[in-house]
Amino acid sequence: MDKVRPLPPAFELMAHHLTEATLDVFAAYELALTPRATLDGSIDERGPVGMAVIGYAGKGVRGALVMMAAERAVQDWMTAAGVPDGDIADTLGEFSNMLLGRLKERLLPLGISIIATTPTAAVGSGLRFSEAPGPSSWSTFDGPDWKLRLRLDAAFDSDFRPVAESIPPAWCAKAGEAIDFDALEASKL
Predict the structure, then answer these.
(1) Kind of pairing, strands 49-58 and 147-156?
(2) For residue 95, which of 8, 175, 173 has the smallest C-alpha distance?
(3) Would you say 144 and 29 are in contact if contact means Cβ atoms under 8 Å apart?
(4) By the 8 A CB rule, do 49 and 125 touch?
(5) pLDDT per residue as tens digits for the range 170-180
(6) 186 Cβ neighbours under 8 A, 6+ residues apart
């Protein structure tokens, strides 16, 4: 019988912050979500399902975030965002980008800096996933009458450690904020 390997502490930290970031992103559009446990990425929907994948990398860590929802769920997101006639794949890509950005915002003060790739999205039926090569977990969120599935994958170098000194929270931009680089540079003097 295969033993279940414990998840690395950094991965558990990332997964926890991903849940919080997800709740934040959808709350910004007045879409209430309820997290719950799931073992896989099944959507249990008939009809098209949308999927977005966005990769990330940092010093000693790399991976991907996968977002999956039924087409009708994404249509609700578009309505909430004020673009009811938008494109399903574009909307999934944008929400995955916002979600990874919020995760990055939460990890930076902890000394974990990541950069994101450009998301790729698709809509279809019968979508399946390969097994992740490293730590991976699925999360499920219940919306008003739809579900959202997220898969977080990560691969850590053997010497991965958060940076010795975390970034001061005041130096980390929050979603929607602008950075005044002149003021930041002056503060270093």
Answers:
(1) unpaired
(2) 175
(3) no
(4) yes
(5) 555 555 555 55
(6) none
Measure the CA–CA gap between 154 and 69, rounded to whole angstroms.
21
Enter the DSSP assignment of 142.
Answer: E
| Amino acid of residue 163 | V
- Considering the entire predicted model, what is its pTM? 0.81
Per the model's pLDDT, the better-predicted residue between 162 and 74 turns out to be: 74
Task: Report how far residue 175's alpha carbon sits from residue 178's, in angstroms, rounded to the nearest whole number.
Answer: 9
3-state secondary structure 56-117: EEECCEEEEEEEEEEHHHHHHHHHHCCCCCCCHHHHHHHHHHHHHHHHHHHHHHHCCCEEEC
Per the document, the length of the chain is: 189
Cβ 61 vs Cβ 114: under 8 Å = yes
Cα 31 to chain center, whole Å? 16
Contact indicator for 109, 172 with CB cutoff of 8 Å: yes
Mention every residue, 6+ apart, whose C-beta is less than 8 A from residue 82. none
Query: Would you state the pLDDT for residue 129?
Result: 76
Half-sphere exposure of 10 (CA within 13 A, CB side): 26
Distance in angstroms (rounded) separating the CA atoms of residues 77 and 33: 12
